[in-house]
Amino acid sequence: MDADEWRVIIDGRQSGLTRAALLQNGELLSFYLQASENRLQTGDIFYAEVTEERLAAAGWFLTLGDGTSAFLPRDKALHPDQMRKRSHLIVQVEKMPGRGKGAQLTEQIQIAGQGLVFLPFSHYSAASRAIEEPLRTSLRHSAAAWCVGEEGVIVRTEAQLLDEITLQNEFDRLRKRWNTIYERYQKMEKPGLVERPFTFLTSILNENHWPKSCTVYCGSTCDCESLVTAIRWVREETGDLFEKYGLEKNYQDALRRMVPLKAGGSLVIDSGEALTAIDVNSGTRHIRDDWEARALQINCEAATEIARQIRLRGIGGMIVIDFLRLAEEDDRKKVADALRAGFARDTETVKFFGFTAMGLYEITRKRQRYSLQDYQRDKENNTD
């Protein structure tokens, strides 16, 4: 990771919308959007109040102040049996609004750092599976020893590059930061925002495990931010940075349903409120001979491209893929393996559920942020 060249290009020229692109060694990985009207951001911490209990079996609707409400699922509450109407609590935004759904909250608050995540209420310790043993167990035990009472900790992948003293100092800083946040919450008299841990830029860096070396390009209209060490800021005179760095066409392509494949087929991506459906087509070429081999070739290329497109567009939630039909179980396994390999570098949690009885492949990807398709849908709804 140290030798990798990371770049974030921020384009704020569109009214009411800031766009960003993340590149690693020249490869475009993902687009990010921040619309000015999006008041909530993943990671935001709020003083909230329970407004109704009628759905208590599933969770509660909470007001966050200024007419904004969000949903707290029952399994994300610390003490669900004690929840009552007008109860006051401190919560964190876990998922941003999207697909016709409001934001989702949690009481299991996380304060993220570079190598650690501090958990003030979880009484739980874990370490990234990307860290090899025995270092993984050693780091987890060391971090767990710093916790007291209900505190917990998650050791991030980046921790393997840091020494124990540095990690303990970070743990102490995260605990101190949490204490400051909680004191601010206790002084508040009505629902509202307590803390916004991440700016647009730092949320991108955090999602990608804080690259060791990164250059950020931003137009003169962007506000300067306090950046961590090894992050270089390049101010550009022109605000049309997507056009300057050859990203505008990629961005426009990522808004389209159809994605052509080199093998001759195509993908059709339809993102609805409930789920995202992806159809793999064989294209205009009619396959007469050796269907199994040609379908396998198209499906394997499609699997790799599907993983790339999902991260590129920021798609999350339930995803159903209709691959070309294959008769051989070994061939279906090759497609599934290609899909898993395609997601190997994805920073979000992806779960694979395999082929259904109807031949559809099901996966889920953790949905935390505003996707390109969420923005397109909201834009179309506002113009209807």
Secondary-structure map with pairings?
Elements: E1 6-11, E2 17-24, E3 27-35, E4 45-52, E5 59-65, E6 68-73, E7 88-95, E8 104-106, E9 111-112, E10 116-119, E11 125-127, H1 135-145, E12 152-155, H2 164-187, E13 192-195, H3 200-207, E14 214-219, E15 231-236, H4 241-244, H5 248-254, E16 258-260, E17 266-271, E18 276-281, H6 291-313, E19 317-322, H7 329-342, E20 350-355, E21 361-365, H8 372-383
Parallel strand pairs: 1-14, 11-12, 14-15, 18-19
Antiparallel strand pairs: 1-2, 2-3, 4-5, 4-7, 4-13, 5-6, 7-8, 9-10, 10-12, 16-17, 17-18, 19-21, 20-21
Helix pairs in contact: 6-7
Describe the model.
InterPro entries: NA-bd_OB-fold, RNA-bd_AU-1/RNase_E/G, RNase_E/G. Its cofactor is Mg(2+). Pfam families: RNase_E_G. This protein is of the alpha+beta class and 384 residues long. It folds into four domains: 6-36 and 200-247, 2-Layer Sandwich (Nucleotidyltransferase, domain 5); 45-108, Nucleic acid-binding proteins (OB fold (Dihydrolipoamide Acetyltransferase, E2P)), CATH 2.40.50; 111-187; 255-373, Aminopeptidase (3-Layer(aba) Sandwich), CATH 3.40.630. It is built from eight helices and 21 strands. The strands form four sheets. Strands 4, 5, 6, 7, 8 and 13 form a six-stranded antiparallel beta sheet that branches. Strands 16-17-18-19-21-20 form a six-stranded mixed beta sheet, with helices on one face. Strands 3-2-1-14-15 form a five-stranded mixed beta sheet. A hairpin with a 6-residue loop joins β4 and β5 (59-65). α6 (291-313) packs parallel to α7. The chain starts with 5 loop residues before the first strand and ends with a helix. The mean pLDDT is 88.
